[in-house]
């Protein structure tokens, strides 16, 4: 099994043999528990070790918030990796997707056929080098609010999680909403990491539940992100969800 180190002592001590690739990973836990920020740690190390990342952050209004989060948690300047990154922004008002503007485009990812074509389009725009291409989808449970497409899009996610893994997938999903469907994805994904948080002060905790093919330490650890960062990113995500869910619920 090939692997990379994640360049963070608190994460690497849980993964003495490294983080496997190609693989599928799900960060799961209650809403507002900082899952995408943990995903940013993985994405930053992936880029630094020569890989490419397709960012699909469903809870953020634009990709500027992704860049800010990566800078805060991993001191990574995305400007230095422009040839290795693509952003797909969710736009539930589109029939399909927009033409690419540089390294980003918008797509109605609620529709299963658009999900497939948008990911393929994005992956073709970046080099398949180092650990390869990783598709990082955060807040994916937002897509499951569609009364028409929720089951089909869940099946797309499950296929990605258990497929031939020509690329790696990193998902984050809240168990607060659509928890039963997310549990189906938990059952088939290769790597499973659970999170939870406390308030006053805001603290984030994680525990590795499963890693495909490699040894791991199952201890629960506190993730050393400052409370102000956790609060800031939660507020941004909460604001966006209030806009995204009504649109997705109409499809």
Task: Report on the architecture of this protein.
By secondary structure, the protein is of the alpha/beta class. The protein has a domain at 52-145 and 164-174 and 228-251. Helix content is 35%, strand content 24%. It is built from 7 helices and 11 strands. The strands form 2 sheets. Strands 6-5-4-7-8-3-9-10-11 form a 9-stranded mixed sheet, sandwiched between helices. Strand 4, helix 3 and strand 5 (85-90) form a beta-alpha-beta unit. The model has no long low-confidence stretch (mean pLDDT 88).
Separation, N- and C-terminal Cα atoms: 41 Å
User: Using only CA atoms, what is the Rg?
Assistant: 17 Å
Q: Total number of β-strand segments?
A: 11
Q: Please report which band the strand proportion falls in: under 5%, 5-15%, 15-25%, 25-35%, 35-45% or over 45%.
A: 15-25%
Shape: globular
Summarize model confidence as the mean pLDDT: 88
Helix content: 25-40%
List segments where confidence is low: pLDDT < 50 over at least 5 consecutive residues.
none
């Amino acid at each position: 099994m090939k692997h990379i180190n994640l360049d963070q002592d608190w994460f690497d001590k849980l993964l003495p043999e490294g983080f496997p690739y190609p693989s599928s990973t799900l960060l799961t836990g209650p809403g507002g528990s900082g899952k995408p920020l943990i995903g940013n740690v993985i994405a930053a190390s992936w880029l630094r070790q020569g890989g490419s990342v397709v960012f699909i952050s469903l809870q953020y209004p634009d990709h500027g918030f992704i860049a800010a989060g990566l800078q805060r948690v991993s001191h990574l300047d995305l400007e230095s990796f422009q040839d290795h990154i693509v952003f797909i922004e969710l736009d539930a008002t589109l029939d399909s997707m927009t033409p690419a503007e540089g390294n980003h485009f918008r797509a109605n990812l609620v529709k299963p056929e658009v999900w497939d074509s948008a990911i393929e389009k994005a992956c073709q725009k970046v080099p398949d080098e180092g650990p390869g291409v990783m598709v990082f989808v955060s807040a994916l449970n937002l897509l499951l609010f569609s009364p028409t497409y929720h089951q089909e899009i869940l099946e797309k996610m499950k296929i990605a999680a258990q497929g031939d893994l020509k690329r790696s997938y990193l998902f984050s999903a809240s168990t607060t909403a659509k928890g039963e469907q997310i549990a189906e994805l938990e059952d088939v994904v290769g790597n499973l990491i659970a999170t939870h948080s406390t308030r006053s002060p805001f603290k984030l905790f994680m525990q590795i539940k499963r890693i495909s093919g490699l040894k791991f330490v199952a201890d629960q650890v506190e993730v050393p992100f400052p409370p102000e960062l956790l609060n800031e990113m939660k507020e941004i995500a909460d604001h966006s969800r209030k806009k995204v869910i009504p649109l997705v619920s109409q499809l």
